[in-house]
Amino acid sequence: MGGMYPLVGIQIPIRSPMKPTRLVVLAFLLVAVQSQLERSAADQAPPFPPDQSKLPVRAPDGAIVLFDGQTNRFLSKTGGKIDWPIEDGSLVSTRGETRSNHLVSTVHFRDADIHAEFMLPESGSGNSGIYIHGNYELQIFHSFGKAKPGRGDLGAVYGFSNPLVNAARDRGQWQVVDIRYHAPRRDDAGKITAEGSISAWLNGQEVQDNVRLGEPRSSYHPFRYRTTPYLDAIGEKQRKTSIGPVFLQDHDSPVRFRNVWIRSLDDLAHEYRPPEDAGE
Predict the structure, then answer these.
(1) How far apart are CA 247 and CA 105, in angstroms?
(2) Residues paired with 104 in a beta bridge
């Protein structure tokens, strides 16, 4: 049998049986078309970064609000209700029965802009973070006044990249971070075929510029350290699809979060509901 199958404006002749060389050509064309579509989507992405000059920053049209004091699209890492207190419209990071009592968004996405506003406590390390897909952490840490911030300081991509500048504010002040994230692409076996990237702005200054992301490096990310059946289900799906949630990290410090939202850069964002037994 023969025929013509349209593929985004390209017509490829298909005949059976196909010779190996034709299979190779078809595979090449599919990869090329996918790359072109992704480049076109990147060209059409909203401007980055947004204006951080006045807080709180209003969520733009098309954004998905994760938390704003009324809307809450976070669950505990067991898939149950959150046990972080909400005070004056902000989430307060709180240790549960064990440490690493993270929150995980019910909205899952592939590529997205991620916005969060946070305040460090008056004492302690101010240690927290924004875990993207549970694999890559934009670090939160009390680093105000530090001459040369490193990979564990505010604005770093933990384990990957120092912040370009120290944009940290002092304790007790609201701070703002905007992240543009492109997820690594993986094949059916879960192997990375194209690295991901992170760019980030903190308090009006660029702290990360298109940092390339391969396999996760931290031993403490949510899918490796004190994980749960709920996270196991998410992690398995994430490795197959490059689609996952954002986490707010608990690291034994009462960091506050408010006005958390994402803006998907493709049409893959959706509300995730796990299998009924995933949280048991």
Answers:
(1) 6
(2) 75, 247
pLDDT tens digits for 151-191?
A: 999 999 999 999 999 999 999 999 999 999 999 999 888 89
CATH 2.60.120.560 fits 64-271, yes or no: yes
DSSP string, 177-214: EEEEEEPPEE-TTS-EEE-EEEEEEETTEEEEEEEEE-
Are residues 259 and 248 in contact, defined by beta-carbon separation less than 8 angstroms?
A: no
103 to each of 54, 79, 164, 244, how far by Cα in Å?
27, 9, 28, 13
Instruction: Give start-end residues of each CATH 2.60.120.560 domain in the chain.
Output: 64-271
Pairing outcome for strands 64-67 and 246-248? unpaired
The answer to whether the beta carbons of residues 266 and 34 sit under 8 Å apart is no
Considering the entire predicted model, what is its pTM?
0.82
Provide the 8-state DSSP code for 245: -
Q: CA–CA separation, 117 vs 128, rounded Å?
A: 12
